[in-house]
Amino acid sequence: MMDLYVQRFLDAMTVERGLSENTIVSYARDLAQFAGFAEKRGVSEPRGVDEGLLVAFLAHLEKRRYAAASVARKMSAVRSLVKFLLAEREIEKSPLTTLHSVRPPRRLPKSLEIDEVARLLNAPDIREDLGLRDKAMLETLYATGLRVSELISLKVDDVSLKMGFLRCVGKGDKERVVPLGEIAAKCVVSYIDGPRGRLAKGARSEYLFLTKQGRPMSRVMFWKIIKKHARGAGISKPITPHVLRHSFATHLLERGADLRSLQEMLGHASIATTQVYTHVSRDHLREVYRESHPRA
Q1: What is the reported pLDDT for 67?
Q2: Domain limits, the chain
Q3: Which ranges in the chain belong to alpha helices (H)?
Q4: CA angle, 120 as apex, 117 and 126 as ends, to 5°?
Q5: What is the structure's pLDDT at 71?
Q6: CA 126 from chain center: how many Å?
Q7: How far apart are CA 204 and CA 212, in angstroms?
Q8: Burial of 81 by CB count in 10 Å (0-12 exposed, 13-18 middle, 19+ buried)?
Q9: What is the Cα 96 distance to its own chain's centre?
Q10: Dihedral of alpha carbons 139, 142, 144, 148, sign
Q11: Homologous superfamily in CATH for domain 2-87
């Protein structure tokens, strides 16, 4: 029976909050696990959901050695379900009052050293059409800190090369304007004036970056591109498009950029999300201090 209430919750989240399909699928998976656990303990109605059940479920997750981030996600889903049931008057008393939120440990973003970024950006062979395209994409990503979804969604009209800015639409369909560095702008100009027209094969496409078939670039395709050039640059550490975004943020902070400006450029809704980079910056300062101070 608990699964019926879970479905009511999922339907409400879909209609009222307009959550993405991926979020709903994640909720459904985690809450199906909770409902199954509750049923095994004889709880088939919301009124049986009490603090003891929630604590037991948390202990169950920890006993099965789920990662801290997974435990936090699952308990967050359960808390949302309980709040829904309270609002629907299916539960009279909140079992959440003494149950603290479970938060995953904050992970510091991984980034590349500046020399590694330089090697990566110089890896594509710009004598070839695809190499010049790859160079323009990598330079744009590092110059702006875009998410990969934002990068591949760029339209030709989104880039103002004379003004040195580009416009992108990020999470929540929020639009922002981000500076585009001189080097990246020159690479984009070379790409537009050269291989882009040939890649389009005479067809009209509004997208800036195209595959060799003339179609818009995909996330998977670009992921393969950045992996390929990382290998060519001799970079052995794991690398994804998001690592280049983190490198953009880390390198700006290390050179004195303020958090508010960085928040705007990254498209973070909350500055708390951006503040994780201050830990990276402090690590950098400690390293510089140890290497430079005579009594460190």
Answers
A1: 82
A2: 2-87, 114-292
A3: 2-16, 21-40, 51-63, 68-87, 114-121, 129-144, 148-152, 182-193, 195-200, 219-232, 241-254, 259-266, 271-274, 276-292
A4: 130
A5: 85
A6: 29
A7: 14
A8: buried
A9: 29
A10: positive
A11: Tyrosine recombinase, N-terminal domain (1.10.150.130)
Tokens (6 digits) for 64: 């099965």
**Phi-psi sector, 118: left (phi>0), alpha (psi -120 to 50), beta:** alpha
Query: What are the per-10-residue average pLDDT scores of the chain (296 residues)?
Result: 84 76 87 90 87 86 84 88 88 75 59 94 96 97 94 94 88 87 94 94 91 93 95 92 91 85 87 72 61 61
Active site residues: 147, 171, 242, 245, 268, 277
Q: What is the pLDDT of residue 217?
A: 94
Measured CA to CA, the distance from residue 283 to residue 159 in angstroms comes to 35
The total of other beta-carbon atoms located within 10 Å of residue 119's CB is: 17
Only one residue has tokens 């110059």, namely: 143
Distances (CA, A) of 28 to 11, 15, 23, 200: 10, 15, 9, 41
Amino acid at 241: P
**Which pTM does this prediction carry?**
0.62
What is the fold, at CATH topology level, of the domain defined by 114-292?
hpI Integrase; Chain A (1.10.443)
